[in-house]
Amino acid sequence: MRWLTGPSGAGKTSLLKLIYLAEHPAKGHIELLGMPVAQIPRNQASLLRRRIGVVYQDFRLLGQLNAYDNIALPMRLARRSETQIHADVIEIIKWVGLSHRQEALPFELSGGEQQRIAIARAVVGRPKLLIADEPTGNLDDDQAQRVMLLLTALNKLGTTVIVATHNHTLIQRYPAPVLRIESGRLVHDG
Amino acid sequence: MMADPNRQRRDFLGLRAALSDRLLPLLVGAMSFLAALSIAGTQATAGLAAHWQLDAASALTIQVPQPQAQDAANNGTRLAAVLGALGATPGVANPQPLSADAVNKLLSPWLGTDTSQLGLPIPAVITAHWTAPGPVDDLRAKLQTLSPGTLVDTGALWTGRVAALTASLQDCAAAILVIVALIAAAVVAVATHAGLAQRRETIVIVHELGAFDGDIAALIAQRISLLTLSGAVCGTALAVPILAWLARLATPFAASSLPTTLFGLPSELWALLPALPVIATLIGWGTAQLTVRGWLRTLP
Hints:
The complex is a heterodimer of chains A (190) and B (300).
Chain A: E1 2-5, H1 12-19, E2 31-32, E3 35-36, H2 42-50, E4 52-55, H3 67-77, H4 82-95, H5 111-123, E5 129-133, H6 141-156, E6 160-164, H7 168-173, E7 178-182, E8 185-189
Parallel strand pairs in A: 1-6, 1-7, 4-5, 5-6
Antiparallel strand pairs in A: 2-3, 7-8
Helix pairs in contact in A: 3-4, 3-5
Chain B: H1 5-10, H2 15-18, H3 23-58, E1 59-64, H4 78-88, E2 92-97, H5 100-111, E3 124-130, H6 137-146, E4 151-154, H7 156-198, H8 200-208, H9 213-249, H10 251-254, H11 267-272, H12 275-296
Antiparallel strand pairs in B: 1-3, 1-4, 2-3
Helix pairs in contact in B: 3-7, 3-9, 4-6, 7-12, 9-12
């Protein structure tokens, strides 16, 4: 697990976008999960994205899908069976404490609830790499602690977790190496 | 009312809202309607032209100058000799000399109603049908021997003109079909772009979650295909009564020449009309696939 921190505008989100393949680098070389990103064909890039879970700062839930279907989406894209999807989604939605809201559409959920659904969607496929951009920003302390327990548990199971945050209290409570960037440059690693 | 959850799962891009079932089917329906009219026009033209060509090619007109003069062998009048030769020639059917009144009527626009008072040497005219496959050169030579100066005309000139007219009309119809297909493809491309613009954020998210370009393109192409199919079926179905009405108007030209079936339309047309929705669907599917895949290439 790594914390990614730095002042606003330092380039944290840009770096995360490069890591979850939402942007191509103008120059330089990226190797992700053992694959050279610039050289892989588009279909391989899609398969690589399926191994990366992303918690977006603005959640980016699909407005026309309810909570259950939003969480199930990565598994459906990966053509998992509906039986497996149902079991995994029910388990994760219970874990984030929203079993009673699985039929709700995103606009019917509070900010905190949307964030928990976004986290559930990011982790339901058991990704090899999890990227989280301010994942506890809209959560109360209890929920934030729950999310951090999930992220550390995933990390112990072998998932690389990168969490971008401004929250130094969180960093102190869950010690892990910190990557600090300023003006697009890495100024601290460790 | 609760949305059908299965429907939601299949339509996770929200295409039902982005690609509505109104404008695109309406436009594709109009294109199919025009295509149906064009195909029917081509068929009717081809059928009539074939019939006219057959008639023109088989018509023989023989002019015998000085019909009452002695023939070359001094066996009788030239007219009798020519009629006898025509009757004895295989491939010549129904030789009939036109009466003097009929010849006068033919010439009246140029020579007035009574040509006998003009003292002009009016030739006799014989009509017949040429049923043999080859040219009439041998017949022409034979009649020349019997009655020098005898002219044998066939409909070859008109056959050529009708053939040229038919080819030209068919080229026009084919060009119209190609233009209609291109416009339909352009309409589908515009509708697809509009749908992509409306669902851009959703598609980008699904792309970042690891959807294949082919899967996204297939979902959108499936929706577009359904809309084009429904529009084309309606447009083609709507064309049938109009075509039946036009066929009825054209009955004086077509009744004797084209075999008709249901609603007075030729059976070949009934065989082609169902192909229109299929072709429209293929155009819709192919255009949507190309448009979406091209657009997705702009994403990383």
